[in-house]
Design a protein that fits this description.
CATH topology: TIM Barrel
Strand order of the largest sheet: 4-5-6-7-8-9-10-11
Number of domains: 1
Oligomer: single chain
Shape: globular
Bound molecules: ligand FNR
Structural class: alpha/beta
CATH class: Alpha Beta
Order of helices and strands: HHHHEEEEHEHEHEHHHEHEHEHEHE
Largest sheet: 8 strands, parallel, barrel
Distance between the termini: 51 Å
Amino acid sequence: LQPTPEFLEWEANFMPVCVNDLIPYCERRLKPAFWEHIRDGAMDGETNRNNVDVYKKIRIRPRVLRDVSNIDTTVKFFGHTFASPIGLSPTGSVQMCHPEGEKVFARTVAKMNQAYMCSTATTVSLEDVAAEARGVPDYPFAKTAHIPNLFFQLYVFGDKKVTEALVKRAEREGYTAMVVTVDTPRLGRRLTLIRRPGELGKRVWANFETKDSDPTKFANKGGNLGLSSNFSDTLNWDSDIKWLRSITKLPIVLKGIMSGEDAELAIKAGVDGIYVSNHGGRQLDTIPATLEVLPEIARVAKGKIPIMFDGGVRKGTDVFKALALGADYVFIGRPALYGLTWNGEEGIEQVLNWLNEELRLAMVLAGTTSIKDISKAFVRHESEYW
Ligand code: FNR
């Protein structure tokens, strides 16, 4: 969308200092269909809103006199020490926000030693995303077999050959783990996609347009729902997770776990991590906020397998609360897209810097110096104060 003179005048005085400041910018800068697609959840967005609002119900319980001069935000995760427990969730269609799309995410996390999950539904192929991370000057993993900062988010397709080809490509490129999204046997009822047919363009096909990708046979159906109409809706614990286990040695993480029962089944199935997510409220509306289900999942899984988490994280205190309630690694979806829309690579770097700094300050002021020490003792639900 070409910026108007009025927008440029407004932009000249725009000086954001936190993630939420970027929302009015994106609203004015992006094409309406793109902005609505990013902003909205399924149906009328109850889950999407609750994801954000639920943090207000949790209070941090600060402790004092604990020497907080030396804060360590590093976390060890899948064998690698990351600079911070904050990473970028997989989001498709990233070129809506910036012409370089997902490449910018890959460069940023390689530079900042954080994590990024590359989606199946990208606007840049998974090979180009990996090459971008490896191309960062002085990147210590430029030539190693595997890139610790990149994970691959896998949608399982009805056609097993399609899925297997993606898995093999991600393995060959050195992605750290296979993050299987299990909450999308069908796409949720996203009203923007229905109201604005065709306005998002063909923006999710990059992984099916490369020369070594067999699966192009279905890729030309086009339309916004086209890719997801190829996802498997028979996906199940017995055959599919076992099958995935049999075709890859990479760690498998299940994204979209929202109950203690499923966390238990995931552990039984022998997967390597679980990812608490409701897809940013974009699948089934009216399911709980992710922070609400985190305690029941942590009761089952904490210490057994890594717990990843996303949904509504906009501030360092949100990250702190999620860590306190049991997450090991916290991801952001929309905030990364906001940063990218605002200022490309610098924008996303700034978003991560804000969150890293806000988390660090929350640790200082709450009286804890390392990520592993952020326990449940540091938070209370509002109702427990009365
Ligand atoms: C997503 N999400 C998503 N998830 C996934 O597994 N594969 C995908 O391709 C996408 N694509 C996608 C596009 C857009 C525009 C959004 C906003 C979200 C969900 C994403 O990974 C994550 O779970 C949520 O975005 C997290 O919530 P917040 O941080 O956006 O509140």
